[in-house]
Structure formats: C-alpha cells, structure tokens
Amino acid sequence: MGRWICCLCSRVADPLMLLLVLALSCSPFTAATTSPSVPHVKPSYSFGRTFLGLDKCNACIGTSICKKFFKEEIRFDTWLSSHLKLPPSYLLSYSGNYTDDAKSWRLVDITRLTSKYQHDRADKRICTSLLKTKTCSLERALRRTQRFQKWLRAKRLTPDLVQGLSSPMLRCPSQRLLDRIVRRYAEVPDAGSIYMDHLTDRDKLRLLYTLAVNSHPILLQIFPDVEGWPFPRYLGSCGRLVVSASTQPLRDFYSAAPEVAADLALQLLTVLRSMGNNDLNYFFYFTHVDAGTFGVFSNGHLFIRDASTLGIIDKEEGSQLIDGQQEHKDIFSCLTVDCQSAFVSCDSIREKHSLVMVCQELLPKLLKGKFLQPVQEKIDSFLQHCASGLTDDQGVNEAIAKLAEILKPLRSCDSRFAYRYPDCKYSDKY
C-alpha cells in the first residue's frame, strides 16, 4: 500500500505538497503504526516420513497415532527445548513426552520393532528375493506372496496363516489366541469381531507384517494393562514406531538400595507366577531375558517392558498346528531371523522355564551383595538352587518360596513404593 501511494505521489505537481505526502505516507514509522501486526509463527517440528517409517507402509505397524506426532502432541525429549531436531534414526528406542491437552505432559517410550539396520536388511531381502531388484515397493512385493493371498481370502485368522512366523507368541498358536488378536487389534477403529471382515487389505498386511517382525505391540493390545496384565499401556503407532507408557529398565536398579532391590525381586517373582497361572489359562514363557526385558514405572511398579521374546501356550486348547506345519517358512519367516533357525518345540517348554532364566540372568545382579550375613548367604544359596533347577520343577518351587519368604520383610513401606503405599501400612498383603 505504501509503495502505491508513493508512486501516486510522484505525479503531484506542487513540490511542497509532494514532500508533505512523501513524509507522511512513505515514512517507515508511519507504516509500522498503520500496518496490521504479523502473527507469531510457531516453530514447526519437521518430521520425515523416512524417520517414522511411513514411507514403508503398508509394510509397517500402523498410523493410529501419527496425528499426535504432526500436531506436536508427542515430542522427543530434546523437543521441549527450542532446538527442534529429530534424534538419530539408528536408535532402537527414544524417550518422549505425550499430551492430550497441550498443558500436562507425561513420559512415553517410542520404540522401533527392530533396529534400523535390521529393517533395512529385511527390506532389501524382500526386494531381492521376491522381485529380484535392489529396491522396490515393499507393499507390492509382499502382496504377491502366497501367504498374503491366503490372508486376503480368509474370513478368520487360523493357525495355518501364521505357521512358520518367527515370533515366539505364534510358535504354539491356538484358535482362541488368534481370535483374540483379531478382536482386539487396536490399529483399526471397529475391532470387536473374531472375523476379519472389518480389516481392509491394508490392515491385513500391517497386521501380518507386525506379527512377522515383532509381536510386542500386539501383546500390549490384546493383554492391556487396564485388565491387570503386566504390560505398559499401548498408545498407538506411526509407521514403524510404537508409542507406549514409559518405564525405566531394570538395569537402572542394579545399584539400588537393599529395600528397593528386595521389592523389585518380589514383584518379578509375582509377575512370573501370574504369567504361568491366570484366569484366561494362557501360559506365558520367555525365550530370552535380559536387563531390558522388565521395566519399572515411576510409582515403583514393575512391568514387562519388552514382550518380543514372550511365548504363549493355551492351556485350554493347546497348540493347533499339526506336526510339520511349524517348519513351513517363507519371506515372512525371515524378516528378522536367519531362515535356517530351528523353532523350539511346544512340548519342550517346562512350567518353570522362565523362573530358571530369571534366577540365572537377573536376580543375581539385582540382589548381589545387598544384605548382611547370614541373609545374603541364604539368598545366594536359593538363587543357585533355582538357577540349576532345569530338571527339577519341585526344587525350583521350593527355592522360590523360601526366597520370597526371606525378601518380604526386607522391603520398606514408604512413598518410594507408591503402587502399594499407603496400603502397606494397614495390610499384610503389601
């Protein structure tokens, strides 16, 4: 507007009048007072589809929480500062912040199904083995497979559709377990039926891909924390990233105070017992445990942080794969493991399988040198007995019972253990 007036003023004949108009209309101070104020532009968090894994969909987990990322309602830890940069893409997990109202924030874990290196390697394997090219459309390649064509025709998820997948959860599948997966699949809006009519072709590919790569997000969906299962809450996924409630890994508590170590050890034993005996008659077992398998919430409550190595046996129906079916393998069997890897037989899993592993790998590191003698000596002895109980279920049971009996009075009752405080002041249960 100022430029137009200045041009118009150049045609004024009277030199005196011209100077006056120019002074009033072309002055930067006058323009500043008359122009409307420019609104403050909010800094933009620049997401890449590649970072999220959206460029790989529908060979991905889902898109249920993408809006939260793009609306800046999920931020990585560094994003609460003014330096808005994405963290390195090669990390397996990230600490983040989540909000529903833009005022209060809570910690979340943002994790990948597997490392970026393994993802890239699997993507290359899909293209080279199915289309004989180095790069390709993953969706187009996977759609051509015999397995996915069977999924497209199927009305119900049956054991033959998941045979040969490397996930421990699906090594001994029952129809009851597979129905639960379809009915509670959280990446579709209208779940609830055991039949797959409500799943689009895209949904089926995402579900199959997730089950093939890492069943952790599926376990969080079908056994939710609100029903008492010891898993963090599943909040959603975007591309190849999963968002769940935040927990601190058990490794961070190896140097904790004796009363904290005793409390976590007891919780660990309680979780394992509940996974072996529960109202739904599912038997959960670990194929591997390490310092990141379990995590602790801010209230002191211990949960299973990483369910990727968790297998399930249905004690009501048993496994419904016939002999030899579990050996059938295809590209979906080889996305994260060597295709030559042998599967563990369902019949070889013993009742105390997970307890023995925990006694070997985790409890000694958590309880080592924490207590005075003769208490420490007794604890070490029971742990040794449990760890060597590969062929003696009864001996493991007795060792664990005695260990729990020793640990219980070593706990304290204060606000550090908010999950049971102040109830522990009034009830022997805690």
Please name the defining characteristics of this protein:
430 residues; alpha+beta; five-stranded antiparallel sheet; three-stranded antiparallel sheet; 10 strands; 37% helix; disordered N terminus
Report on the architecture of this protein.
It is a single chain. The protein is an alpha+beta fold. Helices cover 37% and strands 10% of the residues. The protein is built from 17 helices and ten strands. It has a five-stranded antiparallel β-sheet with strand order 1-2-3-5-4. Strand 8 and strand 9 form a beta hairpin. The N and C termini lie far apart (75 Å). 35% of the residues are buried.
How would you summarize this macromolecular structure in one to three sentences?
It contains 17 helices and 10 strands. The N terminus is likely disordered.
| Major sheet: arrangement of strands | 1-2-3-5-4
Q: Name the poorly predicted regions.
A: 1-43
The rounded distance between the terminal residues' Cα atoms is 75 Å
Strand content: 5-15%
Give the helix level as a range of percent.
Answer: 25-40%
Number of strands: 10
Radius of gyration: 29 Å
Mean pLDDT: 85
Please give the structural blueprint.
Blueprint: H1 2-9, H2 15-25, H3 28-34, H4 49-52, H5 66-70, E1 74-76, E2 93-98, E3 106-112, H6 116-131, H7 138-143, H8 146-153, H9 159-162, H10 175-183, H11 201-213, H12 216-222, E4 234-238, E5 241-245, E6 248-249, H13 258-276, E7 282-286, E8 294-296, E9 302-304, E10 310-314, H14 353-361, H15 363-367, H16 375-387, H17 393-407
Antiparallel strand pairs: 1-2, 2-3, 3-5, 4-5, 6-8, 7-10, 8-9
Helix pairs in contact: 1-2, 14-16, 16-17
